[in-house]
Design brief:
By secondary structure, this protein is an alpha+beta fold. The protein contains five helices and ten strands; from the N terminus they run H-H-H-H-H-E-E-E-E-E-E-E-E-E-E. The strands form two sheets. The protein has a six-stranded mixed β-sheet.
Length: about 210
């Protein structure tokens, strides 16, 4: 993955523009579902005030999977992600609470939120990467959540019921404190996600 090395000020401005482009398209996709998350996210962009954090581009080991997922973007949202993927601050998911054996095969970026590249205190939005043949065990949080599958496929379990297959284009919703887990097989999973409601990280349990 490449990172800007010259003209840092201009590169950062260009990077912010690319990331904001992806954020705008993500909000449009999730907004089509309506409901509280659509209203909350559209309100964020309508407000027009998004402070930029000082987070710099970063990668974790699982990011080695990313080029294979973005070789042939199938829609404008994926193309926009491909345009800005090298500008993003990737890190391990789960706020430091996922076992290392699992988290080192995953990556997450928070594009919008309290810990995001664009700072906001009421919603979180980002992208999750989960490697193949990996179980992301049951976990829960106070925030309500939506996932939108961008690439790959995974089994999804909600309330400890049997895993159900989810594929590109699917939306998956989790209520506040609803147990959920994801399990990949031969394909890695790349998914857009958003939190709303009580988005404090302290409530995350696994």
């Amino acid at each position: 993955m490449r990172f800007p090395r010259k003209g840092r000020e201009m590169a950062c401005t260009a990077a912010q523009s690319r990331i904001l482009g992806f954020l705008t398209k993500s909000v449009a996709v999730l907004g089509q579902q309506g409901g509280q998350i659509g209203q909350a996210l559209q309100g964020v962009l309508a407000d027009g005030r998004l402070p930029v954090s000082d987070l710099q581009p970063a990668v974790v080991p699982a990011c080695v999977l990313m080029p294979g997922l973005l070789l042939d973007p199938r829609d404008p949202l994926m193309q926009s992600l491909a345009d800005c993927v090298d500008d993003l601050h990737w890190k391990s998911p789960g706020f430091g609470r996922i076992p290392d054996a699992v988290s080192r095969q995953m990556a997450v970026v928070e594009i919008l939120g309290p810990d995001g590249m664009f700072v906001h205190q009421r919603v979180r939005l980002g992208v999750l990467l989960q490697g193949e043949h990996l179980l992301y065990p049951n976990h829960k949080h106070l925030a309500q959540e939506v996932y939108h599958v961008l690439s790959g496929r995974a089994g999804w379990s909600v309330d400890s019921v049997a895993f159900q297959p989810r594929e590109v284009g699917d939306f998956i919703y989790h209520r506040s404190n609803q147990l959920h887990a994801m399990k990949t097989q031969t394909d890695p999973l790349l998914a857009l996600w958003a939190w709303w409601g009580d988005i404090r990280s302290v409530s995350y349990e696994i």
